[in-house]
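User: Please predict structures.

Assistant: First:
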Amino acid sequence: MSQINLNFRTACAEYIALSSFFHQVPAPVVRNTNNILPTSQKYVLPFSKERGLTEILAFMAKTKDGREYIPAVCVRESQSGTALDIILAINKTTYTDGDDILQNLKASFEQVFQILNKSDYG
């Protein structure tokens, strides 16, 4: 088995294990079509990688079932290309509704990113 294939399988296993920070029962990924608009800004991260990361993070953020709880995730590359901003949102009835859920998601994502930051697969 090649080293690349082994690293890929190991990375996949780690991602699955990391998802346990968020929930035990996975939900299927929903694909959205994309319309790529021309842009003058140069990005370090290819759009396909950014989209894939966004899909993974949205999947991980889905910790509850029901139409009243639908998380949204946005990934935005910094202008310098050295950082990514992850923006989380959920639908709310009132201004403070769901704040505890957002704080829990934020803390869970921070744990995941700390682990990935120390990973050999960087």
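Second:
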Amino acid sequence: MSSLGFTTPLVLASNDSSREIYLPVPANVQLSDAALNMRAGYLRADGGRTTMVLAVDTYPAAARAMTADQGDAGMTLGIDGAPRANGFVKLGVNWTTMLAGQTNCSDPRTPGNVLRVAPESSFSYRYDSKTIADLRTAWGALPAVTAIMVGSKRLSAQSYDTAWRIGVALERAGKHSTVTVMPAIGDSIDLGRLNVPAALRSVPAFAALSGGGRHVLKDQAEIGALLALGQNGADAQLRGDIVVGDPVLLNAISSGLNALQEQLRSNAPDAIDAFREWRKRLEPDTAGLDPKELRLVSAFGRPVILVAPQAGANFAGLFDNFWRNISGAPALTVRTVHRPHSEEAFILLKNLGGAPGSFDVMSRADWTASFDIAEVASDGRVPSELVLDVSAAPGAGRTPPVVSVSLNDVLLGAKHLQADGRPERIVAKIPANALAAQNQLKVAFVRQPSSDNCRETPQAFPVAVLASSHLKLGKARTDANFTGMVRRFAGGADIVLPQAYLAHADTSLQNVIMLAASTGLPPANSKLVVAEDGKEISPRNHFLALDVPLKESKHMIEVSGNTLVLNDSSHKPLLDVSGLNRFGALEVVTVGGKEGVVYRSVGPQAPVLERPFQLSSGNVAAVGGSGLLSEINTDDTAGRDSVQDAPRLNVSDVLWWAVPLFIVALFIMMLVLANRVRRRHLARQEAEKQTAERDNAPPPPHDPS
């Protein structure tokens, strides 16, 4: 399970906690000997009834009660081999714990009862390779760590270009890649895992490979023998799930098998006919191979995907999420493949792999969608706002359910739902620094279970993520940091490599793939530029440059041998250190008005990058074999941009309280005005009355004197 991304134990700790794990298998292929070896342990400090239930494809398959204070919860579970149309076996792990003997609603929580599923758990199966009949099925059958085989340590620019595109496409699809090189005469190989049948040891080439330990290949026949061992040999030395079909590799396979056939003719002539039949499964069929063709072939005794030397970009485009399902043929010549361009200022989540639908929630459930930034960025626009439409059925409790939305573990928004079965909308702004090359959107639904004073069993009620949910696109910011470069790279860029990288593909290609995937370089619409060693160049586009000097560039980082100097924005040293090795530095620079990312190795040996890493709002980063070591922004060490990006009041935020306040103020004003009018009216009436009384008063009596 560690190859699926589980680097830490999976912990289930609440009273009723469950997790679903999707185990990839070849789609529509019958499996045999499928088994789950789950390595797990438990703690049971609070006692009570504690049960673990495993379900396969939603159906309960095994259960176990835990009775000790702690112990081993591991088990081996056989899984039926029925073909799965969706290409996954859904494993459900449910952990239930309840205190016994309670009749009132006391605190039911059991924080001391915990299940831990170790990442060393494994899922194994076998299948008949003859059932892999098309490219789509072959893609689904690729292992979690897929081996890309190239012809030699020295590659042509065309083959190198194809190989790095394949690797980045795999990383974007959620698989991981590793690079293997076809062995050559003089290479030292490890024979520790190689099993040579006794019947073959009479042939000199096979006998030479049966000694164990380290062995130096002496001739082409020994390479042919390594090939002839098929799956046995592939596991040990010749693993290739995707093969770059350049002439160097194809000729090496043919030469090795020809040399072995000559030895068999001399030492075991009776085996020639059987070898010729077996050779059909060892040597790829390249007859009539188009330069832009993708073909399912048999090589090393099993099905592999053969990618023609000019088909790297087409491979990346065809096996993108949008077009992958149309690859249901054993061979395809791809002349053009692009995502459809839309002028709309939004993109539906269902087009990013987030399947809308309903599911039951008793206490908590998550809905996720993953997408590459290149899938959503176009014409200088990137996701700026999330519009999420959901609905929820009413539950038994009075507390309304809560839905929260996060992107790359950054909380975007949350809301109490009315839970009346009607659509409800959540609108959340997406901070610029929340976007990355690879993004995961997570929607979490939380309900408060109700049991009517413990007289009822809590039940789950449905919620739904609706198909109208979408991302709004806004103008991309032009920040000079890694996040800004991810947005710039989304439309395509140049990857600039020195000639030395092509001469040492066995060590450089893996790092190129990981750096391109980490910085967000799209494999389908980027361009490879090869520079002469030591010669300065001027990029013509946004770029990712690896160990290449650039003209008229101002660097924050200075590298000389094993010495690294990091300067601040005023070009004063922040760090000056020597003695580094297996260390790399990334930096955002501007050359000739074109922004890009520069990578430079520090020390006599470059680091070996095994996984992509996540970059954010820095403009300088340090990397090593374990991934990202440190990241800073030399232009904003205090985090000024983050403070300026803090939430501000906008029109929608103000309207919810301003409109009612305005109505109340208007009502009070009308009351005041009405009161004034009334008082004036009363005063006028009083004045008129007094005037009338004076007019109607009798004249004073006449005094005769």
